[in-house]
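Summary for the steering committee. One of the milestones for this cycle was to obtain a three-dimensional model of the protein with pyridoxal-5'-phosphate bound, which we needed before selecting residues for the alanine scan. The sequence and ligand used are listed below.
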Amino acid sequence: MRFLSTRGRDEHRGFSEALWRGLAADGGLYVPEVWPRFSVTDFDGAETLPQVAERLLAPFVEGDALAPKLGEIAHEAFDFPAPLRQVRGTADNEILTVLELSSGPTAAFKDFGARFLAACFQRIRKPDAATVNILVATSGDTGGAVAAAFHGRPGMAVTILFPKGLVSPTQQHQLTCWGDNVRAFAVQGTFDDCQRMVKEAFGDVGLQHAQQLSSANSINLGRLLPQAVYYAATSLAWYRQRGRPLSFIIPSGNLGNAVACLWARQMGLPIGRVVLAHNANRTVPDFLSQGEWLPRSSIATIASAMDVGNPSNMERMRDLFPDHGGLRNAVSAISVDDSAIRTRIREDRARFGEIWCPHTAVAAEVWTTMPAELKGAEAWCVVSTASPAKFPEIVEPLIGMRVPIPETLARLFDRPSVFEEIDASLETLKGKLK
Ligand SMILES: *Cc1c(COP(=O)(O)O)cnc(C)c1O
């Protein structure tokens, strides 16, 4: 399989190369040149995430040096589950399920993509090559997931830049508790400054000569493809049991999780409707309703991992559905404001006994406010993107109780936090990278 840029057709890359480069030379995002098609029976005998991953991803690595290693990569990356459970207490004609994607080391869905990418990078890198330094700018979950995925891997290092004072105390701890081959810097600036510094570092010839820099950005194909695996495995399990497709409501920001779901459906998996649940950053809902793409600055909300005003993966969505009418048939998108998120967290604890993280609550609100016919017509699944225990500052005052802490997170809280503060300049960063 070859991968092309969303912006041009002249670059053709194999799987390893597309992962290693991250972004196409013309600034576009890599997409597969053709879509493999599967039927449900192609997955007979495949039940677990690693088993489904091996079959679903085989066509993408075909012809690449990683092809013979796909099995071991899948087992290493998918070593925690993505359970689906039904919510009790809905009306008789309504089916509501939750897909829990927060069982990984940092209790958010980004663990799946980050761990798959790390497992691939380690096998792409030549054993005698210089240490690869993965540079990440983060405003929340990405940095922690990438740090966890690369922590302790020989020949790989991670450098995290986060905006000082602009991430929650819980998030900051998850960025700074690693040590060893992971270093964290609190930048005196905003998330945009952190991102600018990463871009400048990649553009700096001297730095590129001195060491091998790479990125684990969320637009990397190696983070998107593994996310299609949990949609495939979940929809297959549901279909085998109930004989009908499952429809997903996905908390969305940069649209990586949503594109992965659309890709799984494109390949023939039994997925019904796909609804994008956005916070007050309404670029995508406005685009779908009005037809004009108007990216804007992001607005700060309590579902902060979704504060994206110019979602990069829209390029991949439009590549899949170039025509506006086609895109509108394929997905819908709804925006939810902070006060509705708060109400949803409070009420769903009371009516269902569910404790949502602020991002998952956006999807729960979309389900709640859906027209009754639509609610009754499909079997719905709210995608839970993170554990509420990552956001105790927001969730606990709303539900009036402590949020139980999963063991994975408790282990991180026990580690000491270490970071250095730096000003928002490339020169300072360069000094630290030497
Ligand atoms: C990153 C993130 C999202 C948004 O996912 P995208 O793939 O960027 O759309 C939603 N919820 C949580 C908890 C996240 O960390």
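Key point for the committee: Residues 108, 110, 141, 218, 251-258, 305-306, 359, 385-386 surround pyridoxal-5'-phosphate (CB under 6 Å).
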